[in-house]
Amino acid sequence: MISHTTLCRLEFNKVLQVVAGHARSDASTAAILAVAPLQSAAAITLSWQRIEEIRTLLRQRISLRISRFSDIRPLLDQVRPDGAILSPFGLLEFIPVLGSLAELYKQLSPRDDIPALRLLEPFPVAFSDILEPLSATLDDEDTILDSASRELAEIRKAKRALAARVRRKLEEFVRRHETAIFLQDDFITIRSGRWVIPVRMDSKGMVPGVVHDVSSSGETAFMEPLEIIPFVNELENLSAEEKAEEIRILRQLSAWIREDADRIAACFTTLVELDRLDCIARFSEQFNMAVPELNQNGALRLLSARHPLLMVMRAEQQDATPIVPLDLELSTSQVLVISGPNAGGKTIALKTVGLITAMALSGMPVPASPSSSIPLLDALLVDIGDEQSIEQSLSTFSAHVAAISKILEQAGSRSLVLLDELGTGTEPLQGAAIGCAVLQELQQRGAVVLATTHLTEIVGFVQQTSEMQNAGMEFDSASWTPLYRLVMGEPGQSHALETARRYGLPESVLQTARALLGDAGTAFSNIIEELRQKRNALADELANQQQERQRLDGLAMSLKQQEADLVRLRQETIEKARADARDTITAARREMNQLLEQFKQDRRKETEVKFRQKAEELEASFAPTGQQPPSADALQPGSIVQVRSLGREATVTSVDQARQKVRVRAGSIEMEVPLHGLIIGSSTAGSKPRKNAPEIKMKLQSEESANELNLIGKRVEEALIELEGFIDQAVLAGQREIRIIHGIGTGTLQRAVREFLSRHPQISSFRPGEPHEGRDGATVAELG
């Protein structure tokens, strides 16, 4: 448990008072001021989750629809007994409560992005069967409206009509000559609930009626004329009926509330909790607070931590001066001692650690980086401030010792101990000895300890003890002012003389003090200054290395970008080459199909010649650049050559040097080929074609396989190009039927082949293969 006294010393109550400034009711304010550290990690985490869900809604400009409301719990206690009736004012208090619950139900129940808030028990309920009649019954002035019931509306209507009739009769009465001469004035008023006219006291016997009042001067009698008494009596009867109907309405409304009193009370608790969470969320959002990590190993890590009350004060004063953040990290059984100048921020640092820890353990976001880590504690123990007590006859030192004694009784492995001005209040050497012993005892108990001191003996002890570390509040030696920045690993100097000068101590006194300080104090200050200079040099070197690393990272990014640009340029070039090749192939196919159709119709020799010439032109367009065709002298009958248009080797049968043509035989096909369409032997066959250019093949099959094409294992685009060339060769060879083997697989190649055959002008029909032909793994086509 963390005591209320400890929280007050850390000024946690002041933070809660700031948060409570957003509350919509006194009940919410009391709930906020009662916030205290929670005992379980699950409860802390759930609180963080609910607050963060509300903050997420706030960032989406969605505010919880909670109106200002009163604490209705006393009214619920009042209405619980049978027959109890609440006053109109009491009933009016329920309208904002039930209205807020209805709005929250409407706002939150459809959402699926608030899982933690949906775990609230009970979830807000819309008590429409009570809220609607309440709203129709009472106005903002706690007056019962005519719309409360039909009977009440009729009674009030009759009452208004009768009152108007009474007024008209009185007006007629005072205007009569025989009456007007006895009147003190001509106005009409009401006295003791009766309608009266002012009659002169000496003439009251001249006007028939009943005297209900006399003026303070005794000169005027307020008389009710006899002729309106029946009407006024009837008006009073209506008023009694009106009062009875109002009581009946209030009794009915009170009964409805009584029936649901338990549910309303439970939902009121939820409303207060939502208002409390919303106040914390708004406070956290205003100062950009974050949810830290929660650990079970006792480690404390604060990054970019700021004192929340200092932030509030700056905001109220509209001071834009940035707050110097606090960074520190401590593990279990570790001791950190902070030294440094007076008014340098040591105590603020200590309170910042304690206050942020208390806020986090209370389920509140904290003014620190989300990478900060807070330990789940059994005890937060502090000795901060001057505890001198006149009533208990305790000096400052005695009070500190008493507080530390209690801390030692409670400290354990899950404790955070904060000690301010350790060892002060008595003779320095003995105070330092006690301080060192206390630090050692707390360390042995496994507590995490954060202490401040001015005593160099304690600083030296910490420097020589393992798992203890010094830290100092940085001081600008040039301007002699504190920088309020915590530097880990090196002690700080008190700079008492400079601080005294800053606060007006005479220079003569300072010179005497400096002379009395002696060489020992100067040597210690010089050692600390040397450590500070080394730390600054290391920091500068680290900054330079960081800059160099950033430069190298920039170069690496630039090289990666250049590589990506090259890859993209290469891909664009490939795509352009492919597009150009596709355009060339498409045009060639169109022209060659026309030639094939003409060849089929007339079988003329010149058509075949044109076809061969076109094939040679195509082959030449895709011939590797820089490769020279063979000369006629290099060829003789029997030479083996590679025919580009066929994509295969052939044997030379004769050479026509005059026409620069060669007759070759490939299987059963014999044809004439120009020299530029040949490559000598198989040695040149392996030369690399132009990269990414499609290979144009009009492959002539051997006689025994000229009507069959195997496409298994090929991509669709590659297979269709080969199929088109195969059909052209089959037409030239006079085939009437061909078989295409494509397999079954996923069916993609099969569908592509059959769709292609359905569009091809040379195909008259096609069918799946018979059992001996491969069934659906093959397609047999008829050439027309």
Automatic annotation (TrEMBL):
The keyword Metal-binding does not apply. It holds the Pfam family MSSS. The keyword ATP-binding applies. Gene3D superfamilies: 3.30.1370.110, P-loop containing nucleotide triphosphate hydrolases. ATP binds at residues 340-347. Residues 762-784 are annotated as: Disordered. Residues 709-784 form the Smr domain. One of its GO terms (molecular function) is ATP hydrolysis activity. Keywords: ATP-binding, Coiled coil, DNA-binding, Endonuclease, Hydrolase, Nuclease, Nucleotide-binding, RNA-binding, rRNA-binding. It is an enzyme of class 3 (hydrolase). Its EC number is 3.1.-.-, 3.6.4.-. SMART domains: MUTSac (SM00534), MUTSd (SM00533), SMR (SM00463). It comes from the Bacteria. One of its GO terms (biological process) is negative regulation of DNA recombination. Residues 145-172, 528-605 form a coiled coil. Belongs to the DNA mismatch repair MutS family. MutS2 subfamily. Acts as a ribosome collision sensor, splitting the ribosome into its 2 subunits. Detects stalled/collided 70S ribosomes which it binds and splits by an ATP-hydrolysis driven conformational change. Acts upstream of the ribosome quality control system (RQC), a ribosome-associated complex that mediates the extraction of incompletely synthesized nascent chains from stalled ribosomes and their subsequent degradation. Probably generates substrates for RQC. Homodimer. Binds to stalled ribosomes, contacting rRNA. PANTHER family: OS10G0509000 PROTEIN, OS10G0509000 PROTEIN-RELATED. This is Endonuclease MutS2. It comes from Trichlorobacter thiogenes.
